[in-house]
Amino acid sequence: MRAKTAIVLGAQWGDEGKGKIVDVLSGRFSVVARYAGGHNAGHTVIISGKKFVLQLVPCGVLRPDCRAVIGNGVVLDPMAFLKEIDRLKDLGVDVAGQLFISDRAHVILPYHRMIELAAENAPGRMKIGTTSRGIGPAYEDKMKRSGLRVVDLLNPEIMRTHIHNACHEKNTIVRALFGTDPLDPNKMYEEYARAAERIAPFIADTSRILNQALRDGQSIMFEGAQGTMLDIDHGTYPFVTSSSATAGGAVIGTGVGPTAIGTVIGVTKAYVTRVGEGPLPTEIHSEQGELLRIRGQEYGAVTGRPRRCGWLDLPLLRYSTEINGTEWLVVTKLDVLDALKEIPVCTAYNINGKITDSIPADVRGLEAIQPVLTTMKGWSEPTENVRTFEGLPAAAKDYLKFLETESGAKIGMISIGPDRDQTILLPEFAATLDAMAQK
Ligand code: GDP
Ligand code: IMO
Ligand code: MG
After folding, report:
1. Do 300 and 352 fall into the same domain?
2. Are residues 117 and 264 in the same domain?
3. Distance from Cα 396 to the centre of ligand 2, integer Å
4. Which of 36, 96, 269, 415 would be a feasible disulfide site paired with 243, CB 3.0-4.6 Å?
5. Contact criterion met (CB below 8 Å) for 334 and 387
């Protein structure tokens, strides 16, 4: 029998609309668990016109009967977390008793941000265009086995010693390399000890909670952050984030076994976007890119940076389907294309005269890609009020069918606007979810 769980992840470079989709689907799940990244994520949910931007907290909290977990694969900035739950409270969402943070997650501290800022801005260094949240340096410490974990927030002595030792090391390094002013460990300890007191009630062995939920026959949704092409292993390295955004990350990042995964749902825009530096083979340099940016409101939810826009990239989508084992696709932002008479789509890559659909491992290969484009007919009519696949314009249906055939996964859902109900759920997908994910 299929496990009652689903991973929802980004199939592209992040910001595919995962937040909206997790929110729509979470009504059918008992628990929603985040498995990677930190407050570099920005997941926007709009419910009857009311806007929520979630960064660390899983979107499941917006449904009062859904429990939420921040898994061990996440890096947690205590101050960002407290700010976020306070903001949610102001919006009428009280997460107490509903939200649990893994005791094994790692903590982001101010020196992580300090190191990242200094390194990103240092002359001669390759700029990644990060979100400046200290994500990369926190994962570096985790892998180096010198990180502070959430469980350590419960032990003031361990925390104090860790902060003092780490500040000594990091201050020495950044002063020597970048001439940055040192951070004060005493002040840092005081602030973080106060924050730890507020965080303590949320801390739990979340792997146990999730595995118990599975034993009790409950359903779990794993909420991805970032996207496949930002994955540390499978993305456009080094222009990636520092965690496993792909499906495998859900297992490692929450502590359930691979046999507990029921299905994988990839969220893809009907085109592509990317924030920050790095290759984007189908990037649009004409005014049509600006048109998509304006119609799609393509500005970063976290940093406000304009997102770079490109045409749908099918070789990339196939790669993403393969890496993640994606069974279902959710296509978002179809409505953004309503204004176009013709829609170019990338079907293959021309790399130095060779036609291929494989994704080069090296940045030079990625940068050499000339996309082979085919032009699809646009539909030039609004789709935001359509609620069935049959109700979509013929050209939109053709566009989606082409995407589906080429991607290697089945389309389960289509999003035609940011609001919760601007969604088309296809019957086969709905039936699969109903069979699998009853509460
Ligand atoms: P995430 O990081 O994957 O959760 O995506 P973001 O929230 O960062 O970015 C997606 C943006 O698109 C948000 O502003 C959403 O409100 C918006 N959005 C989501 N789905 C749709 C859609 O189908 N149409 C339109 N026009 N906007 C959408
Ligand atoms: P969601 O979950 C889009 C990008 C940054 C940068 C690179 C590395 O909202 O889809 P980092 O701060 O993680 O070290 O930055 O990754 N990036 C995202 N882009 N959506 C995100 O999250 C992102 N999280 C990180 O812009 O290029
Ligand atoms: Mg986002």
Report:
1. yes
2. no
3. 30
4. 36
5. no
What residues does the ion ligand 3 have nearby, CB within 5 Å?
15, 42, 301
Residue type, 11: A
Substitution candidate for ligand 1 out of 39, 44, 221, 299 with most atoms within 8 A of CB: 44
Residues in CB range of 290: below 8 A, 6 or more apart: none
Full residue range of the structural domain in which residue 182 is found: 106-202
Average pLDDT over residues 317-331: 98
The residue whose C-alpha atom lies closest to atom 9 belonging to ligand 1 is: 15
What are 86-141's pLDDT values in tens digits?
A: 999 999 999 999 999 999 999 999 999 999 999 888 888 889 999 999 999 999 99
- H helix or E strand, kind and range, residue 342: strand 342-351
Catalytic residue among 39, 43, 106, 234: 43
Is 43 considered catalytic here?
Answer: yes
Residue 276 structure tokens? 């920050």
Residue 30 shares a structural domain with residue 150: no
Number of H helices, E strands in the chain: 13, 19
Ligand 2 pocket test: pick from 131, 242, 363 the residue with the most ligand atoms within 8 Å of its Cβ.
Answer: 131
Closest ligand to Cα 115: 2
- Which CATH number do you get for residue 132? 1.10.300.10
Q: Domain boundary at 150, 167, 202, which?
A: 202
- The number of angstroms, rounded, from the C-alpha of 40 to the middle of its chain's C-alpha atoms is 9
Tell me if 226 CB under 6 Å of ligand 1. Answer: no
Minimal-distance CA residue to ligand 2 atom 27: 276
- Ligand 3 center from residue 11 Cα (angstroms): 13
What pLDDT score does 68 carry? 98
Q: Give the CA dihedral 387, 308, 345, 399, nearest 10 degrees.
A: 0
Which stretches within 184-302 are classed as H helix? 185-199, 206-215, 248-252, 287-295
Count up the domains in the chain and report the number: 2
Residues 218 and 273 in one domain: yes
Q: Do 176 and 119 reside in the same domain of the chain?
A: yes
pLDDT one-digit tens code per residue, 112-124: 999 999 988 888 8
Atom of ligand 2 minimally distant from the CA of 136 = 14
Question: Does ligand 1 have an atom closer than 6 angstroms to the CB of 419?
Answer: no
Residue 146 sits in the same domain as residue 235: no
Same domain for 190 and 232, yes or no, is no
| 206 CA to centre of ligand 2 in angstroms | 25
- Looking at the structure, tell me whether residues 114 and 181 fall in a common domain: yes
pLDDT score of 439:
52
**What's 401's domain CATH number?**
3.90.170.10
Q: Is 164 a catalytic residue?
A: no
Of 147, 177, 202, the residue that ends a domain is 202
